[in-house]
Design brief:
With 195 residues, the chain is α+β, with helices and mostly antiparallel strands. It is built from five helices and 14 strands. The longest helix has 9 residues, at 15-23.
């Protein structure tokens, strides 16, 4: 095997971003709904997203730069992470547009909303699952901000459950690759963890 070495300490922005987002794949998407201090809704996808803790239940997403989502979370302390399924890919992509903070991305993408149970921001009505969160912490890292949210409630459509667990083949999630590419749910390989 012949490897090419990339010295990221000498690369100017945005070259490290392009390389890292091409290697760290697929990345799940946090489709984050927030409200600003005046009650205007915002909805935006963030593909730096994962679980940070199970006890207490905490998820994290990263805002690359100080965007509307981050400002709203800091102002209100609440957000909702909606699952972006294959059926919602076009609408999710539409909400990634750079628009003025006064624009409601739910309306922009033609998405219906439903009231959340525990927080003020609404859920995407057609999303098969949503996590209602309160702000746990914001950690600045370089030009980005890691947002940690304590999950108060998970709202999951009965049709995507296998017993009491979400079934990924029914959720049909989309994930981000590099550039403008996404991946949809594909082959599953099951391996038991060694004893």
């Amino acid at each position: 095997m012949e490897r090419r070495l990339f010295d990221l300490t000498t690369w100017p922005t945005p070259q490290p971003y392009r390389l890292l987002t091409g290697l760290v794949v697929p990345r799940p998407i946090a489709w984050v709904g927030t409200l600003d201090a005046n009650g205007v809704a915002n909805l935006a996808p963030h593909s730096f997203f994962t679980v940070a803790s199970a006890d207490p239940p905490v998820v994290q997403f990263t805002s690359v730069g100080r965007k509307d989502t981050l400002r709203n979370v800091e102002a209100t302390g609440e957000f909702v992470v909606n699952l972006a399924s294959r059926a919602l890919l076009e609408q999710m992509n539409a909400t990634s547009a750079s628009v003025d903070a006064s624009v409601d991305e739910f309306d922009l993408a033609g998405l219906g909303t439903e009231a959340s149970e525990r927080v003020a921001p609404p859920r995407v009505a057609d999303s098969p699952a949503a996590l209602e969160c309160v702000l746990h912490d914001v950690v600045p890292v370089g030009n980005s901000f890691v947002v940690l949210g304590r999950v108060l409630l998970a709202a999951v459509d009965e049709s995507v459950l296998d017993g009491d667990r979400p079934a990924e083949w029914l959720l049909d999630p989309v994930a981000r690759l590099s550039g403008s590419r996404y991946v949809t749910y594909g082959e599953t390989v099951s391996l038991r963890r060694p004893e």
